[in-house]
Amino acid sequence: MSVTLGEVIAALEARYDPALAEDWDAVGLVCGDPDEPVERVLFAVDPVATVVDEVVESGAQLLVTHHPLFLTAVHGVPADDPKGRLVHRLVRSGAGLFVAHTNADRAPGSGVNDALAAALGLTGTRPLQPAATDPRAGLGRVGRLPEPVTLAEFAERVAAALPGTVGGVRAAGNPGRRIETVAVCGGSGGSLLPAAAAAGADVLLTSDLRHHPVSEAQEVRGPAVCDVAHFASEWPWLPVAADVLARDLSGRVDVAVSRRRTDPWTTHAGASR
Ligand SMILES: [Zn+2]
């Protein structure tokens, strides 16, 4: 029994309501025919060439990515443009592309931030910045570890829970500091430092952090900060989203998660404590 792309999109949008997306975002179907059948769906963080290679090799009819291929208006998708070429390759191999970005960040239950919190073993999680329309949805999550650990142990736990990257895991704050209440935000969540402090978090785990806000948070004895690769912070969503899609469609599609590391950083030198 197969499903159409339209049915897959309806199932994804029931979990990741496009209305939750930020105004500037570009979510939903990028290419693909909603009337065509779908047997296999591949989930990945980034719509980049190596992931499109995997779509073509695996014979998937749909690629679901967290990050948009296009965030600004385009006038065409010629194949001599890097992004246009990806669209051509997907269409030629009979595959669509669907994006669930900030709507997946904010979604309750099976979104990016709940997946990140679950990967770290947090319990009693709630949104750090609840959405006005639904207090179960919103930006970031805050919850508790099963038992307190030091900041250094927390960083080790994070490294073990997330996919390995060249940059690894860094933390700002006293390495012996007691960590029990944890705030997380997949992707670029440095703007949530005040919300993490207000929620009584001992640490904020996010990515793409800047020097001054992190330094200032330590000066005022705010939350410690744990900095991971942007890709690594969002990857835990992939198996969660794949699993809920398969269940929501009663197993009528095969789902797979890309194992390709699309974190753009490739080398690291000079680490010193
Ligand atoms: Zn992201």
Automatic annotation (TrEMBL):
A divalent metal cation binds at H66, H67, D105, H230, E234. GO terms for molecular function: metal ion binding. One of its GO terms (cellular component) is cytoplasm. It comes from the Bacteria. Gene3D superfamilies: NIF3 (NGG1p interacting factor 3)-like. Keywords: Metal-binding. Belongs to the GTP cyclohydrolase I type 2/NIF3 family. PANTHER family: GTP CYCLOHYDROLASE 1 TYPE 2 HOMOLOG (PTHR13799:SF14), NGG1 INTERACTING FACTOR 3 (PTHR13799). Homohexamer. This is GTP cyclohydrolase 1 type 2 homolog. The lineage of its organism: Bacteria, Bacillati, Actinomycetota, Actinomycetes, Geodermatophilales.
